[in-house]
Amino acid sequence: MIEFTWLNISLIIGAGFLAGFINTLAGSGSLITVPLLIFMGLPANIANATNRVMILLTNIVGVSSFRQQKVFKLKDSIWLSLPAIVGAIIGALIAVDINEEIMTKIIGGLMVFLLITIIYKPQKWLKDIEAKTEKKFKFWQYILMFFVGLYGGFIQIGVGVFILSGLVLSCGFDLVKANAVKLFIILMYTIFALGIFIYNGQVNFIAGFLLAAGSMIGSFIATRVAVEWGPKFVRIILLTVVIVAIVKLLGIYEFITNLF
Description:
By secondary structure, the protein is mainly α. It has one domain. The chain is 80% helix and 0% strand. The protein has helices spanning 6-25, 30-39, 44-68, 74-95, 101-120, 122-126, 139-154, 159-170, 175-199, 205-249, 252-259. Helix 2 packs antiparallel against helix 3 (44-68), helix 7 runs antiparallel to helix 8 (159-170) and helix 8 (159-170) packs across helix 9. The longest helix has 45 residues, at 205-249. Mean pLDDT is 80; it is low at 129-133.
């Protein structure tokens, strides 16, 4: 278990701040927080569950801030969040007992594909906020959100990147608005996923609230940055996050260090 010294508390809050900022602009902030919790003494399943406290509270701040800036319409987000909620409930039930190592490698491979997509078709990611405020979604787009929720309920790490990709490339959102919709979808399904983890006694609330304290501040700042600096800046952050995720999830960093 974690020893809550002043140093550890500071590290947890600092990691939460970075994760909140990164999650709001792109995703995969949990690549920082989950390994930190494990390093400090939490079992992997407890760290995975505890991280959801941060996700829930951070996304409340992010969604509220984006709504104040009139970046997205709630109706679009609600319809897309419903299949994600169903998927997340199933994913969380699976995550209670399953080993995540193989899944992590699969996600690392998918990140490589996303990196190629972001580089190869930059115009898809850099368009301006569309004037049309209401969208009609196709059935397969709801299915896509179901599988995103399934993965998010299971492990969470990297889910923001996949939601962004789905919203930008298949649903036609611009990158800034997609970030706002992404936060709402994750917020909605995290309520149910976190409830399952709490029921199974897998949440360390002290660590979770410390992460959330830093993360909410990071999220608030990131929403302002996203709107003021626009899609080009957000795409740079997204590219950076995806590359780091690939290095981490596929074990490239460990492979290189073992060579030397």
